[in-house]
Amino acid sequence: MVANDCEEAISIRAEIYIEKIIKRYSTFVVKHSWCFLLLGFSICIVLGLSSVILHDLPDFNDPTKGFVPRGKHTLTSRLFVLEKIKAKLDQQLATAKIINQGKESLSKSSPAFTNQINGKYQEDDDDFEDDDSLNQKDLEEDLRANPYGCAFQSLSQNQCLNNLEVYELLNNGTDFLKTSKVIQSQLYKPNEHMCTSIDLNRHYEVYFETSDSLATNLLDIDNLLSLCKKQYELVDLFQLHATCHYTLPEMVAYFSNKSDCRQLTASDIPIFIDRIQRCHSLYDTGLMRFAGLKRYRAAPIDLFQYDTCFRFNFSFLTLEYLLDKTFLSTNETRYTAMWFLKPTKPIISANGSEIHTSNTAHDLFIEHFYQNSKFDDGRTKISALNFMDIRIPSAMKQIRADMFFVILAISLIVGVTVIYLRSITVALMTNICVGLSFACAYFSYKIIFGIDLFPYINLMATFILIGISCDNVFVIFDAWYSEKLDIYNEARLNKRKIEFYGKLTTKQEKQYKRDWDYTASIVSQRLTLKDDVEQHNKDETGEEKHFDSIKNTDLIRMMKVNEQQMIQMMIGVLRHAAASVFVTSFTTSAAFFTNMISRIAYVQLFGLFMGCCILFNFLMTVTMIVSFVIVYEKICEPLSARFGLFNHFPAIFDTIMISLTRVNHAIFTVYIPRIIIKFRYFFITFFLILGILGLLIVFYHPKLTPPKSRRYQFFQLNHPFERFEYQMRDEFLSYINEDKENITNPLLIFIFGVEDIDLVHPFNPDQQKTVDNENIVFNKKIDFYDPLTLRWLDTFLKDLNRSELFTNVQNTYSQWLTIGRLLRGFIKKDLSSNSTYDEDEFFVPSTRNETFVAMNQLFKFFNESNQVASSSDSNRGSDNFRLGFLPDPKTHNLSAFLFLVNMNVIFDRYSVQHDYYQKLEEYFEKCLEKLKLSEGLDGHVYEQVKHGWFVSPQFLFYDLMREVIRGTYTSLIFSMIFAFFVLLLTSGNIVITLYAMITITFIIADTVAIFVLCGWELNILETIIIIMSVGLSVDFTVHYGVAYIKADWQKYHPKPRATSYPLKSHHLTNGNPTEQLLLEQVPQTKKELPKPSVFEQIRAWHRKGNVQRFSRIKNSLIRVGSAVFIAGFTSFLAGLSMSPSKLTSFSQMGFFLMLIMFVSWLFATWFFLPLLSFLGPIDKFADIPFGKLCRCGNPSSKSVVQTLTANDDEQQHLKVKLTDEQSI
Prior knowledge:
- It is a single chain.
- By secondary structure, the chain is mainly α.
- Among the domains are: 82-89 and 747-828 and 839-871 and 879-951, no CATH class; 186-294 and 301-344 and 357-397, no CATH class.
- Helices cover 61% and strands 5% of the residues.
- The protein has 43 helices and 13 strands.
- Strands 9, 10, 11, 12 and 13 form a 5-stranded antiparallel β-sheet that branches. It has a 4-stranded antiparallel β-sheet with strand order 4-5-3-8. Strands 1-2 form a two-stranded antiparallel ribbon.
- A hairpin with a 5-residue loop joins strand 6 (347-348) and strand 7.
- Helix 20 (461-493) crosses helix 40 (1094-1138) and helix 38 (1061-1070) packs antiparallel against helix 39 (1073-1080).
- The longest helix has 45 residues, at 1094-1138.
């Protein structure tokens, strides 16, 4: 008993201290509201301006910056380190070539001829990539074998150039690729505007399909003529008359020996099909693709001599770039592409501006292609576009255009606020607070945290913040008017005269009189309620009437309150509304802050910025908004009432507003409580099933999976740019084969001597950091001149060759053996002296000094060799270069070693990638562990090589997906845990917290389940959305939960038992005359009832608790029901305003906001509240006993209470506490 009294005393003391703080703060706000408001405005404006002045505005030109995982233990950071190593190797090779070229003699070729060739075909050569020169020995061998044999033959078979003529044209020193144009022009001159190769960095791609969805084959004469006409129109539009292009109509004309596609006839189509199908077998063998990609590198004379499928690359280009993948099997093509190559040299227009830039290409797209039916003639139409890879720059331009939707969202919010609160001023203040919160968060982001990278996705914080800010403002104002309503009801109860700010209208006068008459009947009915259990239990049906049901918006607003009453009202607002706003703000911001767990900079920075925005908005809510409430009550309400602001509107407007008010109160004070209470079992069962189904969809089937494509979507899928990226790339063999080659047996690089430490901070990617003036960190422990280290590397390469995880290791090991032979040659000049040397074993020098000398001579040999390639050689990474040595730039000693192998896997799906990487990591760890065990305690090689690592360019997508999955679930768990503890500490009730967590879990599960059913995959944006769902789903549930706990359920609701004598004496002494008269009539005896059974006792206990549960449910809906609905509706409108955006990120975020608001309101209202009405906590059941956390000693309860009640304020608080615990 003493312990319980002690706990109660501690709880009361804590409540008293909290009440004191709230009272002092409320007094300060009421008395100094203007100062508080102006001070907040000034601080926010200063912070916002300083952040803009001291730092440059965000640059959105590269939206992919920050899209990849970066930091410790990420594979992408290894790729960044590998890029820096490659740059150093390229620099080393380029330097060696420059030195080498200074030592070479001038070429013996004719300068006049060389200059003629280079000058004449300089522009034509722009169509080709860097290609190897013709092998001189092979050409001389062909010349000796058959000097007059036919090397190149014309298409009509009537002209031929022999090997001797070709040799003379080449002149022993000219690039064959340039000279071949001379040879081809002498044999047969194709259409000069047609290209023989593709430069993927400078082109316009226009994809066409038929306008008729039933006749989809483009190989029809009418369709080809339509395409031919559009080809000429596009050449004029792009201003590319002087550059080459190739199209399907031109190819058909070429294979029919016609120079113009406008001359095509129906008979030309079978000729074209037969010609391409004749090359089908060569294409299937891979020979055509090999020759086409090599651009005449592999024995071009022999290829042209024996098969015309290789001439000009036209057959290869037609199959891979102009016809879709279905042609080889159906002789039909549904899609075709037109390729137009822009010149390499800039072209200046008449007004002095350069054309064929990304900006001009974007302008062309907007003016002539986007939502323009200009190129749809009823036969063919444009299907997709790819303009010089301007998809990303166009997306960034679209961001600026989509900022219009922010204005739209603000307009919608203003409209809803005006209708709900009937105040333009409040609507403007809400949006001002959103802007100031954004400014303060931007100041923290740029100045305090010093972050340079500002992702464009941070701009979506505006939309989310609008919804959250409206939620807070509506809750605050609803709580304010609820407190004002209590004063109104109290005045009517005590029959005090009520003053108003202005003169009442006739309708308001009638309403005021009806309220006054209604008061006496309700109070009389409540206070004279007999001690009849059956009569009292009728309340279970929800038929109880509340004073709030006679609430009149105009009367409450116009009621005049003094400063002391404002303080009392502000105390109530802070006690009820501020608590729920605190919980929602901190749980939502915590959900965003948990994004920092991710290693993807975009996710981290969005979470950080959004969390700061919400916290600043909360600070403004409890400072500036509550101050504005007082200013609004002191100034705006009197002005509105005095001048009859709303009375000047048309009568129809006043009628609509009154009707909306009545509907609002009828729904949230009568119908929804009645429906919830009456059908609570149905709602619990129904939404429980929905929640479980959502969990099954998300985690079992079809479940949330990583994306199958490596592409990132910027626009909607029906956008021409996205149709190219997501549809055309899967229709044409060029892109299909490119993707297939990238994922089939991709390269894997092992690196020793360099730490896998990325010195660039992911938040500031443009700031380069160095260690010892190097942008990479060398491993100082490793010694490549140590013979033991070389032997282990040799053993490691042999193990790789034997492992099933790798392929093409033999090519790498062959080069490794060559290095060994060279080292042996530098050490032992007379190789015949050691006949026992095994050529298949790597030679390791016996001492470190020998290794050092041999390695230096090896590097010198490489630098002086004529075989050293340039840094731009396209064969880097092929079989020609599978080993790399990186000397220290200061000491010139070997500091790093890397070698390449191929992974024996098709790296297509995430599951395959993950399994293979796990095996790879396990294999490398076992190799190191084996070395450690073999060396024993005295070994040092393990310490040298244990920091080695491996990476592959194909790890980029895998690492991104791995971090997305890890970050999503980790952040989700942490945000849920944080929400649990915040709810637990705020509500102070375990049952409320558990119910709320179950509701939040179901909300998230059903929201994500709908995303899964809509085809969403787990990408970066989806990660952010899922983590956001925790913070946004908790709001409505918390508002209801806090309102349930804080509900003054006994107000105007006497319990059906006799009044205790002490409390009755207190009321008879201090109450008003009406109460005294009614209380004297309350009977003092109870009815004698038979002793019930256990089941009946439980049922009676539950039914008795229902009285309190139902009253709390109704009180919750009365206090926050309409505010929660309108807050959800405003957030829904904010999402709706984003949905028309052409950017996927904006439209998906809008869809998410609409869905999460709808699902959250459904579950919070129709699942959480029915749970509470069925088995919600009553009295102090499941409350956290905070008093047990303090040691109270052993005084008696009487002395504790006497000590605590020494203060008058505390005594008054205890009196209120005791009153709440007794029946009236």
